[in-house]
Amino acid sequence: MIGDQFHFHIENDPKYSGLNVNQGIEPLPSVSEDSVSQFLKNKKKRAYTVEQYVDGILNGDITMLSQAVTLVESSKPQHQEIAQEIIMKCLPFSGNSVRIGITGVPGVGKSTFIEAMGKYITAQGKKLAVLAIDPSSERTKGSILGDKTRMEDLSVDPNAYIRPSPSAGSLGGVARKTRETIVLCEAAGFNHIFIETVGVGQSETAVHSMVDFFLLLMLAGAGDELQGIKRGIMEMADAITINKADGNNIEKAGLARVQYMNALHLFPAPDSGWTPKVLTCSAYKKTGINEIWQMIDEYLIHVKNNLYFQNRRNQQSKFWMYETINEYLRNDFYQDEQIIRLMEESESKVLKEEISSFAAAKKLLEFYDRIRNNKNKHLK
Fold this sequence. Notes:
This protein is of the alpha/beta class. The protein folds into 3 domains: about 45-95, Single alpha-helices involved in coiled-coils or other helix-helix interfaces (Up-down Bundle), CATH 1.20.5.170; about 95-305, P-loop containing nucleotide triphosphate hydrolases (Rossmann fold); about 335-380. Helix content is about 55%, strand content about 10%. It is built from 17 helices and 7 strands. It has helices at about 1-5, 35-40, 50-60, 60-75, 75-90, 110-120, 135-140, 145-150, 150-155, 170-185, 205-210, 230-235, 250-265, 290-305, 310-335, 335-350, 355-380, and strands at about 100-105, 130-135, 160, 190-195, 215-220, 240-245, 275-280. Strands 3-2-4-1-5-6-7 form a 7-stranded parallel β-sheet, sandwiched between helices. Strand 5 (about 215-220), helix 12 (about 230-235) and strand 6 (about 240-245) form a beta-alpha-beta unit. Helix 4 runs antiparallel to helix 10 (about 170-185). The radius of gyration is 29 Å and the shape is globular. About 30% of the residues are buried.
């Protein structure tokens, strides 16, 4: 009975004799791995020339900009070669933005603040690029991608561009790539750049070395307001903003503001001649954003009038030239297979006290020098 029910089709019932039932089609053949591979090969990204990348960037093509930034972030030598050509051609069209560094303690609400400030900027018809420095994401599994999903309004704003930082790498490498990305974003017409520190520690110093204005975000009501704040970060700040100054927290934020102002007076006067200010805001309620932007405008007028603005940018360019040299030499040294083998031998001898650390280092550097000389001879 069950078998009969299973084979019974209602369209074969005599009362539906006027209906025509077409035969079903033959089952399609299964997709082979070869056909998938061929499909993926055909779907590979089209290779553009350097000129096409540059034209696209200068015309504000976000897709071209993103692909060029991907080349900048790539560790492949052929990609780096193309990236450097693109940067060189974009360089004359860069430098015309306001670069703002933003850092803060965990949980301070950086994403909410960046979105509130970003929407304030784009509402005025200005273009904003948000970049990040996060050398720690491989270890901590943190990512600005999470921030991007939180910046719901800004991420779909046609005048905004949010770019996650490279997923891993040394601080110097990640920072250099961010610095190069700034050039491309400026050439694409983004006249405001936010650099966010996602990692902690020395990343604040790296951000400070590539921005015009450095903003430190803080919280009120978290115990002693000055606890856990490195003096170096406070000294770098051109302004401190106490976020989440809303509801029951307004009074605490006001008290924290006084404490920070008193602390800043203990530091030497900055070279810019600017007196760092402390403001309060609520990024969630979008209060205090206008005052912060007015303060940044005041700062820019001040440092442009006393020529500090251009002098600082010149110093930053020089700094990144030497940083790039240092990074290249470090990578070239530590990635050489012969050096790696000799380092292992030298390390073993140092641990056995057969040779001093200094003698081992000198021997490694001399060997590296011979390798470089041999390479140069072959090139000639």
